[in-house]
Amino acid sequence: MSSTNNGWRLKKTVLPQHTDHAGVMWHGSYLDFLEEGRIDALDKVGCSYSELSNKGFEIPVISMQIKYKISFFHGEKILLNSQFKLENKIRLTCKTLFLKSTGDIGAEALIGLVVVRKINDSIKLVRELPLQIKNILLLLEEGPKF
């Protein structure tokens, strides 16, 4: 994945509901921020997650790794910088850096995703992506046009 200059960016503020009793960002809040970052990037390429879902597609998480390096505290600003890579034609990897206002990396996450199709009560892995969805994922991989 390329440098952090080409990533999808989302600015967040650590709010009281994101922290533990000591004012430190709680580990579960990182998951919410990661999902929000992925949904925001999809919106920025012109496809809302609800639009995909209404067409019967979902992009579930199949693996996750988070490395916590420096704590975030209540009131602190965070910049999420996410980069996507389409691998093996069906797996999408999202690498996200949680950056402090100083530019230091507070945490690093690596998320594995796949596209599935919901048909009635069954969920099936999409082994050949429809062209429209493949193009959306390639736009995510390309990164924003600044």
Provide an overview of this structure.
- The chain has helices spanning 27-44, 49-54, 131-142, and strands spanning 8-13, 57-58, 61-68, 77-87, 91-99, 105-114, 116-119, 122-125.
- With 146 residues, the protein is of the alpha+beta class.
- The chain has a single domain (7-142), classed as Thiol Ester Dehydrase, Chain A (Roll).
- The strands form two sheets. It has a five-stranded antiparallel β-sheet with strand order 1-4-5-6-3. Strands 2-7-8 form a three-stranded antiparallel β-sheet.
- The protein is globular, with a radius of gyration of 16 Å.
Question: What is the top-level CATH class?
Answer: Alpha Beta
* Major sheet: 5 strands, antiparallel
Structural class: alpha+beta
Mean pLDDT across the residues is: 93
- Helices, by number, come to 3
Strand order in the sheet with the most strands? 1-4-5-6-3
Features:
five-stranded antiparallel beta sheet; 8 strands; 3 helices; 146 residues; alpha+beta
Summarize this structure briefly:
With 146 residues, this protein is an alpha+beta fold.
Element layout with pairings:
Layout: E1 8-13, H1 27-44, H2 49-54, E2 57-58, E3 61-68, E4 77-87, E5 91-99, E6 105-114, E7 116-119, E8 122-125, H3 131-142
Antiparallel strand pairs: 1-4, 2-7, 3-6, 4-5, 5-6, 7-8
